[in-house]
């Protein structure tokens, strides 16, 4: 999974910000590492020099293999809360979308009558015959 972090010219794009945001994204989305190809974070300050409520914005786009990109946005008073909020939203969206896809694949596998026998043969090959009972 490739993680890219961008910020507008009103936010200092320091190496600390990039490192922290990349680390936070990696930690939060670690579960989806095999499915995601790229995650892009865009961090902006909508009011610039002026202070204001919820003027920091984090928009994240995630690209999963074989699926349309998923995009989420979160606004807050601080960059940290904006990034964490957007990551929470993305995690929930990916859990939902990829979970539905996994359920669909499982239903397709269950519909194949020979699949159960193949699974049983693989289990027997890996673990031997019947499990021993404690008597």
TrEMBL record:
Which Gene3D superfamilies does the annotation name? Answer: Ribosome hibernation promotion factor-like
Q: Which SUPFAM superfamilies does its entry note?
A: Ribosome binding protein Y (YfiA homologue)
Keyword Ribonucleoprotein annotated: yes
Which Pfam families did the record assign? Answer: Ribosomal_S30AE
List the residue ranges of the region (Disordered).
101-135
CC annotations in GO = ribosome
Checking InterPro entries in the record gives: RHF-like, RHF/RaiA
**Which residues fall in a compositionally biased region of kind Acidic residues?**
122-135
| Keywords from the named record | Ribonucleoprotein, Ribosomal protein
Q: What is this protein called?
A: HPF/RaiA family ribosome-associated protein
| Protein's organism | Halopseudomonas formosensis
């Amino acid at each position: 999974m490739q993680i890219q972090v961008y910020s507008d010219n009103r936010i200092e794009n320091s190496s600390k910000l990039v490192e922290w945001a990349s680390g936070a994204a990696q930690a939060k989305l670690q579960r989806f590492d095999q499915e995601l190809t790229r995650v892009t974070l865009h961090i902006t300050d909508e009011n610039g020099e002026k202070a204001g409520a919820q003027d920091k914005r984090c928009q994240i786009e995630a690209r999963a293999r074989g699926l349309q990109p998923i995009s989420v946005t979160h606004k807050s008073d601080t960059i940290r809360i904006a990034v964490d909020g957007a990551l929470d939203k993305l995690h929930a969206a990916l859990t939902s979308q990829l979970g539905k896809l996994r359920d669909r694949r499982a239903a397709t596998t269950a519909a194949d009558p020979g699949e159960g026998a193949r699974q049983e043969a693989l289990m027997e090959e890996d673990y031997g015959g019947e499990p021993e009972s404690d008597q």
